Amino acid sequence: MNNLFNLSGKVALITGASSGLGVQFAKALANYGADVIIIARRLEKLEKVSKEIETLGRRCLPIKCDVTKEDEVVAAIEKAIKEFGKIDILVNNAGVGAGTPAESLPLEEWKNVIDVNLNSVFLVAKEVGKHMIENKYGRIINIASMYGIVANNALSVSPYHASKAGVVNLTRALAAEWAKYGITVNAIGPGFFESEMTDNALKDEQFLSYMKVTTPMRRYGKMGELDGIVVYLASDASSYTTGQTICVDGGTTAV
């Protein structure tokens, strides 16, 4: 029987892959056989991650790229295609947060979060999507958030909520538009996982208490607990799944 989750021969591109969840996604896909392209602004960190992935026996190409800049995205995708000949899987992971109360939030801070968390998702999907359309195959996985589905009363993150909700419906729109080309488009909605963006909040005792009250499993997500869903959505196991946002949040959005 064929292994539905086997990614051998596939090429995956992961944005925001210099730290945190992006690194975990890249390693998970490599562990299941994919060669990977990792993109972020910090090349030195990407090169370190690349060496770690190559020890898994997979090829890895690090590319410095600011995903909010169209010319850099176009150049990065062209470089990736030239090196590997195709991109089968895209994980749109780059993202930022904001912690300013809405009534005093500077417009520039709002615009930056929307630019990184939503505009860049469209921009990278658009450029990679062109090649997937030509190949009549693709798996696009956008990293949204459980906070694209629900709000919260512990953190002042209105632009984060708005941007991730945009990712959820952009995922549906692209899924509907590109299904005829053999492309699936889905999203993952992580709950509380450790990353550079969440480090300070997750170590706060008051926030820990809030999490235990609002999360049925009463704990943060552990490293590796997103591996299964990203491999599923990248593989043939999800061939009839598209337009969905799957929350991996310990049950937070269930209550």
Automatic annotation (TrEMBL):
Q: Point out the signal peptide segment.
A: none
InterPro entries listed in its UniProt record:
SDR_fam
What single Pfam family name could you report for this chain, choosing any that match?
Answer: adh_short_C2
Arranged from A to Z, the UniProt key words for this protein are:
Oxidoreductase
Question: Known PANTHER family for this protein?
Answer: 3-OXOACYL-[ACYL-CARRIER-PROTEIN] REDUCTASE (PTHR42760:SF133), SHORT-CHAIN DEHYDROGENASES/REDUCTASES FAMILY MEMBER (PTHR42760)
Q: What is this protein called?
A: SDR family oxidoreductase
Q: Which organism is it from?
A: Tissierella simiarum
Q: What is the lineage of its organism?
A: Bacteria, Bacillati, Bacillota, Tissierellia, Tissierellales
